[in-house]
């Protein structure tokens, strides 16, 4: 049992080191702002989409400024606070509502009893917002 513990103490740092250094290399090679694994060029602004939210950001002199946060629906569209949008989620007609809980944007999903063609059309819609220039 002791030999297994000592082997684990040796292997865990060896496995973890390349992962940490790999992340640092990407960030240090970025000639702009590095955020959530993305290198954003200096002087660029636009919408940054993360897994759960959208942010209107600007990169100036290697400093990132977040101007506004948005909710993100299941199609990747950004929604403003208190905005409502109909659509389809798991083959059911729903209404998405953007709410902010303690400054964190979140989507509320309410199932609708009546399903209309507008729900289906809205489910196909993909809205575009300004994308960031990545370096």
Describe this structure in words.
The protein is 26% helix and 41% strand. It has helices at 2-28, 117-124, and strands at 33-35, 38-40, 45-49, 53-60, 63-72, 78-79, 84-89, 92-101, 104-111. It is built from two helices and nine strands. The chain has a domain at 31-124. By secondary structure, the chain is an alpha+beta fold.
Coarse shape: elongated
Chain-averaged pLDDT: 79
What is the makeup of the main sheet? 4 strands, antiparallel
In the predicted model, the low-confidence regions spanning at least 5 consecutive residues are 11-23
| CA-atom Rg in angstroms | 21 Å
User: Number of DSSP helices?
Assistant: 2
Keywords: Signal
Signal peptide: 1-22
Relevant terms:
2 helices, alpha+beta, elongated, single chain, three-stranded antiparallel β-sheet, 135 residues
Question: Any chance you could write out the topology, listing elements then pairs?
Answer:
Elements: H1 2-28, E1 33-35, E2 38-40, E3 45-49, E4 53-60, E5 63-72, E6 78-79, E7 84-89, E8 92-101, E9 104-111, H2 117-124
Antiparallel strand pairs: 1-2, 3-4, 4-5, 5-6, 7-8, 8-9
Signal peptide: 1-22
Keywords: Signal
């Amino acid at each position: 049992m002791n030999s297994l513990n000592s082997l684990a103490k040796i292997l865990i740092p060896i496995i973890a080191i390349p992962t940490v250094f790999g992340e640092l290399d990407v960030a240090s090679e970025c000639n702009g702002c590095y955020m959530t694994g993305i290198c954003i060029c200096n002087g660029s602004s636009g919408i940054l989409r993360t897994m759960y939210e959208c942010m209107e950001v600007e990169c100036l002199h290697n400093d990132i400024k977040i101007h506004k946060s948005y909710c993100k629906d299941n199609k990747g569209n950004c929604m403003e606070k208190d905005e409502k949008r109909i659509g389809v989620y798991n083959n059911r007609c729903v209404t998405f509502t953007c709410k902010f809980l303690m400054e964190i944007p979140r989507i509320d999903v309410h199932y609708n009893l009546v399903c209309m063609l507008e729900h289906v059309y809205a489910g196909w819609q993909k809205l575009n917002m300004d994308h960031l220039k990545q370096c």
